[in-house]
Write a structure and sequence with these properties.
The complex is a heterotrimer of chains A (about 300), B (about 350) and C (about 325). Chain B is an alpha/beta fold and about 350 residues long. Chain B has 11 helices and 12 strands. Chain B has an 8-stranded mixed beta sheet, with helices on both faces. Chain B has a 4-stranded antiparallel beta sheet with strand order 2-1-4-5, covered by helices on one side. Chain C is an all-alpha fold and about 325 residues long. Chain C starts with 15 loop residues before the first helix and ends in a 6-residue tail after the last helix. The chains are: A mainly alpha (about 300), B alpha/beta (about 350), C mainly alpha (about 325).
């Protein structure tokens, strides 16, 4: 077990290193330097000073090693556009909002997605099934950047229940969380429905029926636990899609989250910020996937950490 | 006949709606099971034997399936007329079921002990400790070594044969009066098959159980059953004691079954397969369903379903050859057609 | 009795030939016919197909139906609502939204289809080779392992994040978007095809082909890959909308096609501010087209999947 965990940890570090290296090379493959676009305003001397400050005058391998060194000390480096604040500050700044949004969206998507999926599966071919599937199709058809304006239009302007945008009270989090959760919710509904239908057709459900167990108890004891396994495997991609979802949702709702810093970084071509946030996102994702793998072994007794290849 | 049987099936008809139309899976099946006897239902796949078993448990999956006609009576109570709740009371406690494939019949995420006594707990409202004790007792009864440890393991830690023992333990958990075993050995290795059959036979004798065993394997029938029911294309073609049917089969389909069976004793014989395939049950023939494959088919066989003819001792066969108007079988054989 | 002498005609034994005639013949349908029949019966899938055809048709003829081009500006006609002259209204530069919407359809659909086709070609080849090589001696095993490791790493990265990073580096434009989308987009298809090939490989007809001396590319392309067509086509109906979605997402972030070229994503982005001003048509039409496209491809893909799934056919 501990042997496996150590191996998994090393694999995580390796994956992260690959991502850092790839992103670093990508960001430095761009011709010119980040100050090029400002060259009209900046005198040559200041540019040189700035280049020196950010070690941009060093050869690329040295820059890379410096970056890795800082990374080990959990320093994601400076921002080029902002003199006073580094990427660490931005992430610390934006983390609260983004994490709250993400957590609420995951909770909404999981709870309702699993619930709707079960209801649809148990009422297969009836109107509840069609209603859940219609919702699922809408969720796939309406991307978050369309869902968000729709929600604002109806729930903030036509019926001013929630604030239009910005960040403040919990009420401010509702619409962006919904916009973020809608797509994943739809996908989880579909997964859960398909999985539940498959499980309810399994022979062990027949066995339970033959024991005289009432339907509700069969669904709870034998159905859900087995049906939820494929949904758990979907959590990794779910987190990934939530991360990319925050880019647009935070932009539309003007929420000061990490996603907004990332998008601003893209807009300003602030490469250290793009690089830093990408590394941060990747770490979050890799850690999540690791935790999901652990959770999987708790749900499915057939999977033992020790016999799995890292 | 006036006597009360443990289980009586009377003119049962079951249809399934499918994408291609409605299949008449069971088309008027009647037989009975008495207390303490083992009855085998024999036939090839798709003949309706498993559907019959499901109907007895009230487990025909509906929508697609429905009982069109007929009655199933268990201990004087009509199962076919029961409410869902009444059915739940009987399932597991009065009638236990052993399924074909032990690899999929157990929930992979639940401990074996808990699965065994799940029905017992429901029907008898016992404490956790009592339930665990019962689970261990049952595991020991079906011959699983080290039951204390095994009860806390998951199905994937059991071999196929061991799992089938667990499935049998589940069926017996509430000391039912009737156990329905649907192809209980088909998915197992030959050596394991014999062990499982011995176990079923031993339990049947020890506990005075009635067993209804569904199989396509005449070897299994000979091993374990007292009486047998031969089904073909949704109808019963022959029924009687195993001894009678094996020694004097009366239906051409049964003859065919016997000939396609290898014999370990006696002289070498050529195995003769039954030519052709069973009829399409979307549009079942209006005459005898076996007529198209029968070597002795007559004009009438295509037109009218034969009624069963009794030969004494409960031995019956539904075949026009036994009609007094039919030519004698000996004559047909003499005319160049072969029988056994 | 006398009965025995005079045989009832009903009890006349049948000859073999007569028997054969009596067997009712059921019209047998091939798998493809069954699948098509099932697909055609699926109303939702057919609706999806109709929408796809309509969208493609409008992408082709739509821009020619109005006397404006997608880039004609008219300062007199800024933000005009839906009218007889401007069927979908105009935008903040007075450009005709109808022309822009269908011109955008060309861009979005082209990017989606081309990216999906590139994914398909790379994915099928890589997945096919990996699947075929797996279990074929030490060298084959190693090839499969290397490919699988690569796939695992790429699959672990968030697709859109990678695409965004690539677009940050590359000049924005249709070609670069397609390149960015295909850079990791093929991974899903490769995984799928490899899995299918692994399943198929041990079946008799492949062994038979090997015994008959067929060479590797022949077995791969003539025997293995054709048998995975079902899943490949189904996957294609899902990769097209996901590429279209990715394109509109990029354009929405300002990383997509650049003005004056329009795509549904850039039009949605341009229109964001209008929620507050009430010029609904500017958001409505591009958003509707994105959603219709996603809807149509997804329901059609679902229907296709159902129709091709032998487990669901009975």
């Amino acid at each position: 077990m501990s042997h496996y965990l150590a191996k998994r940890f090393l694999m995580m570090l390796l994956t992260l290193w690959i991502i850092v290296t790839l992103t670093f090379s990508l960001m430095h493959a761009i011709p010119g330097d980040p100050f090029a676009s400002d060259s009209d305003q900046l005198p040559e001397q200041i540019r040189a000073n700035l280049r020196a400050k950010y070690h941009l005058d060093e050869p690329l391998p040295i820059q890379y090693l410096l970056y890795l060194k800082n990374l080990i000390m959990l320093d994601l480096g400076p921002s080029i556009k902002s003199d006073t604040r580094g990427v660490n500050d931005m992430i610390a700044d934006g983390f609260g909002a983004s994490a709250l949004l993400g957590a609420q969206a995951v909770a909404i998507a999981l709870v309702f997605g699993i619930f709707f999926g079960i209801v649809a599966a148990l009422n297969r071919g009836r109107w509840l099934d069609y209603a859940a599937m219609a919702l699922a199709v809408l969720g796939v058809a309406i991307p978050s950047f369309i869902m968000a304006p729709l929600l604002i239009n109806f729930l903030a302007i036509k019926w001013p229940i929630f604030p239009v945008a910005t960040w403040g009270t919990w009420m401010h989090t509702v619409l962006p969380s919904l916009a973020l959760a809608f797509g994943p919710l739809a996908i989880i509904t579909r997964y859960m429905r398909a999985s539940m239908i498959e499980v309810m057709n399994q022979n062990y459900i027949r066995t339970a029926e033959a024991k005289g167990i009432p339907t509700l108890a069969i669904v709870v004891r034998h159905g859900i636990r087995n049906a939820i396994l494929p949904v758990v495997t979907f959590l990794g991609p779910l987190i990934a899609s939530l991360i990319t979802g925050t880019f647009v949702v935070e932009k539309i709702f003007a929420i000061p989250g990490i996603g907004k810093y990332f998008v601003d970084g893209i807009f300003n071509r602030d490469y250290p910020v793009i690089l830093g946030t990408t590394v941060f996102y990747s770490s979050i994702l890799i850690i999540t996937i690791f935790l999901i793998d652990l959770a999987y072994t708790l749900i499915d007794p057939r999977i033992k950490l020790t016999n799995k290849e890292g | 006949m006036a006597e009360q049987h443990l289980l009586t099936i009377d003119n049962l008809k079951v249809n399934f709606k499918t994408y291609g139309g409605e299949v008449q899976a069971v088309r008027g099946v009647s037989f009975h099971v008495d207390k303490g006897e083992t009855v085998a239902v024999v036939g090839e796949s798709g003949c309706g034997k498993s559907v019959t078993a499901q109907a007895i448990m009230g487990l025909i999956p509906a929508p697609p399936g429905r009982i069109v006609e007929g009655r199933i009576v268990f201990e004087g109570k009509e199962i076919t007329a029961m409410s869902k709740k009444e059915l739940l009371e009987i399932r597991g406690s009065q009638i236990g079921m052993v399924f074909q494939d032990p690899m999929t019949a157990l929930n992979p995420t639940m401990k074996v002990g808990r699965q065994i006594v799940e029905g017992f707990v429901r029907h008898h409202q016992v404490s956790r400790e009592e339930a665990q004790k019962r689970a261990i007792e049952l595991l020991r009864m079906v011959g699983i070594p080290d039951p204390e440890k095994r009860a806390d393991q998951y199905p994937h830690q059991f071999s196929g044969g061991m799992r089938q023992r667990v499935v049998i333990a589940i069926a017996l958990a509430c000391q039912p009066k009737l156990v329905i075993a649907d192809e209980p050995t088909t998915a197992l290795d030959v050596t394991i098959q014999a062990q499982i059959l011995d176990l079923l036979k031993r339990l049947q004798e020890e506990q005075g159980l009635s067993v209804l065993i569904i199989t396509h394997d005449l070897g299994v029938v000979a091993e374990i059953a007292h009486r047998m029911v031969v089904m073909y294309a949704g109808v019963v073609v022959e029924t009687g004691s195993v001894k009678d049917v094996f020694s004097h089969p009366r239906h051409p389909y049964t003859w065919g079954l016997m000939r396609s069976l290898p014999r370990l004793d006696g002289e070498k014989q050529r195995l003769v397969p039954i030519e052709g395939t069973p009829p399409d049950l979307f549009h079942p023939p209006k005459g005898c369903p076996f007529a198209a494959r029968c070597e002795f088919a007559m004009e009438i066989c295509d037109r009218q379903i034969p009624e069963p003819t009794a030969f004494g001792g409960g031995h019956q066969a539904a075949c026009w050859l036994h009609d007094p108007r039919a030519p004698r079988i000996e004559e047909l054989v003499a005319a160049g057609r072969q029988t056994e | 009795m006398a009965m025995e002498q005079k045989i009832d005609p009903l009890f006349r034994p049948l000859a073999k030939q007569e028997q054969a005639d009596a067997v009712s013949a059921r019209p047998s349908l091939s798998n493809a016919q069954l699948a098509i029949r099932k697909l055609v019966k699926n109303k939702l899938a057919m609706l999806g197909l109709v929408i796809i055809v309509a969208l493609v048709a409008m992408a082709i003829i739509g821009p020619h139906l109005v006397p404006y081009s997608y880039s004609d500006q008219s300062l007199m006609m800024k933000n005009k609502p839906v009218s007889a002259e401007h069927w979908f209204g105009t935008d903040d530069l007075g450009r005709d939204m109808f022309a822009r919407t269908w011109y955008g359809a060309r861009i979005s659909l082209t990017i989606g289809v081309v990216a999906a086709l590139i994914d398909l070609i790379i994915g099928v080849t890589v997945g096919g080779v990996a699947g075929y090589m797996a279990g074929r001696g030490k060298r084959g095993e190693r090839i499969d392992t290397v490919i699988m490791r690569l796939i695992e790493v790429l699959y672990g990265l968030p697709y859109l994040l990678v695409v965004i990073l690539l677009m940050v580096v590359m000049e924005p434009g249709m070609l670069t978007i397609i390149i960015a989308l295909s850079a990791t987009g093929w991974v899903g298809m490769a995984r799928l095809v490899r899995g299918q090939i692994l399943q198929l490989k041990n079946q008799e007809f492949i062994l038979a082909a090997q015994v008959l001396g067929a060479k590797f590319p022949r077995i791969l392309f003539k025997h293995l890959i054709p048998n995975t067509f079902g899943v490949i086509i189904v996957n294609l109906t899902f990769t097209i909308p996901s590429a279209i979605f990715a394109e509109s997402f990029l354009s929405f972030l300002g990383l997509g096609v650049q003005a004056p070229v329009a795509s549904w994503g850039t039009m949605t982005n341009d229109a964001l501010g209008v929620i507050l001003t009430g010029d609904w048509w500017r958001l409505f039409f591009p958003a509707l087209m994105i959603s219709l496209t996603m809807f149509a491809f997804n329901v059609f893909g679902d229907g296709l999947q159902d129709a091709l799934d032998p487990r669901l056919r009975e």
